[in-house]
Amino acid sequence: MAPLAEKYESLVSDVYPGIEPSKFKGIYAGKVAFITGGATGIGLETAKAFAASGANVFIVGRRLPQLEAAKAEIEKLGAKVGIASVDVTKYESLKAGASAAVELFGRIDIVVANAGRYPETQKKLGDYAPEDWVSCMDSNVQGTFFTLHATLPELVKTGNGYFIALSSSLAQTRIPGESAYNISKHAVNRLTEWIDIEYKKDGVKAFSIHPGSILTDVSKPLAESTFKDLNIFTQSPKLFAWTAVRLASGSEDWLSGRFFDATWNLDEIEKLKAKIVDQDVLKNRLALPI
After folding, report:
1. What is the pLDDT of residue 218?
2. CA 184, CA 56: separation in Å to the nearest integer?
3. Maximum CA pair distance of the chain?
4. What is the model's pTM?
5. Could you give the residue numbers annotated as active site?
């Protein structure tokens, strides 16, 4: 992804004019955003951004006390908020959460699959306890698919649904010891591509987004290991949140099925639209010699 990034005038670390919150005030009135991992960090900021833009939100996560605290915080923005304790690695749990959202609000228009995990330690393939490696896949790949499967009927029903998956730039890297997380996010990129392939005709748009280098409970192990000597976790969670708000507004539907880095300025990306579409890039591909 670096060559494309070099075409930009600058990378961004926080809210910039193209995703200024005032641009989206009230645009999601009557719509519902369903967000996994919505009680803290990136998920909470995303829930607040959609609420500030007029949406009602339904957040799910494992820890009920944190969900209740987040609900109170989001409600201050004037939104109606629903919560449910959900384990994204258990399909029936996620299905129950989605059903609760529909029962409360009658619909789901936007889904943000934010929940995930990063292994606490980095190991070579043969040094992983098999259950630890698989656990990362369960949360990041299976959890994202379960989120999709549980909410997809509602997204299709709207005729204009949006599915936004939290990915990572690490999906494009090959760092020893990082196999579980990197492979899981590579798979997430492919999943969003498949959503576009199979459900575009139903009006469903899907994006996989790298949120930036943000210090959260999930990224903390990475900050303390692989990148412990680098001060790179400097971006704001609001960057992903308001990027998601803009993408779900319909302004960049042509990016559906593609990977996007929130540190790329969307206004500058628009200048590259013809090349991106013509060359069918920002998708995970096998490179062959020319």
Report:
1. 58
2. 30
3. 57
4. 0.90
5. 181, 185
